[in-house]
Design brief:
The protein is α/β, with parallel strands linked by helices. The chain contains 9 helices and 7 strands. It has a domain of 163 residues: 3-Layer(aba) Sandwich (Rossmann fold). A 7-stranded mixed sheet has the order 3-2-1-4-5-7-6, sandwiched between helices. Helix 2 packs antiparallel against helix 7 and helix 3 crosses helix 4.
Length: 253
């Protein structure tokens, strides 16, 4: 796994009122909750499972960790953390889409993890948690859905313990122009059609490709983490796909 900056600064449509609206995101995800996991597997050709497992590799090294997963949806990321790492003692997943959380709770019960993982309604821009509470905060494919990204990053910093770590798994547009052209073809034409066919919600999967294209990636997102006071910021490339794992630390003062 190499630390890298494989993508150019991509900030178009991020600032101000440009880009797709995030105002109805929780309702949108509730509408597609029944087919959400299936489409994740189909649209990523199953690699989303591997991507989430990769996040666990970058958790802090000590045992007994208390972890927060934001935009947890149906719980895939927080479940993957527990299945891949022995360093976690307890975890909380938060999301604003209640139907997604209901599916996540069923999955957690099925795996016998209800004693160590709890899911609750929570907003990434106003996290219902005390200061300095978590050893790690993760968010996977959710940061670009947040209405105020800078405020969300400040909130993540607030709830982390000194020495705690933030891990953000998110799509990044490739730098190679030929690969980028192929990805854009997939995002703009194939993904929305397949997503609409399975979910019967054309808007949701048009929104998906628009947010991927316009959200800051590579060094541009690293700069957002630094602006939120995180240190040791690095972007890790992820095998078998387009996402990156962004890592930052709350310094020990």
């Amino acid at each position: 796994m190499n630390a890298a900056n494989p993508t150019p600064e991509n900030t178009s449509s991020f600032q101000g009122s440009q880009g797709p609206s995030r105002s109805d995101v929780p309702e949108m995800f509730d509408r597609i909750s029944a087919t959400y996991d299936l489409l994740n597997r189909l649209l990523s050709f199953g690699t989303d499972i591997l991507w989430r497992k990769e996040v666990a590799r970058f958790l802090p090294s000590h045992r007994g960790q208390h972890v927060l997963d934001l935009a947890t949806g149906t719980g895939d990321q927080i479940i993957a953390l527990f299945e891949e790492s022995r360093r976690i003692e307890s975890g909380v997943g938060m999301d604003l889409a209640e139907k997604m959380l209901e599916i996540g709770r069923r999955k957690i019960r099925k795996r016998g993890l209800s004693e160590v993982i709890s899911l609750m309604v929570g907003d990434a821009t106003a996290i219902p948690a005390d200061d300095c509470q978590f050893d790690a905060v993760t968010i996977s494919f959710g940061i670009r859905n947040v209405g105020d990204v800078k405020e969300a990053l400040r909130e993540m910093y607030r709830v982390l313990k000194p020495g705690g770590r933030v891990l953000v798994l998110e799509f990044a547009m490739p730098r190679n122009r030929f690969l980028r052209a192929g990805v854009l073809l997939y995002l703009r034409y194939l993904l929305p059609r397949l997503g609409a066919l399975v979910s019967r919600d054309p808007h949701a999967y048009r929104y998906l490709n628009e947010t991927i294209e316009t959200f800051p990636s590579g060094e541009a997102f690293c700069d957002l983490l630094r602006a939120a006071a995180f240190t040791g910021v690095v972007a890790h490339s992820v095998p078998l796909g387009l996402p990156m794992i962004y890592q930052g630390e709350r310094p020990v003062k």
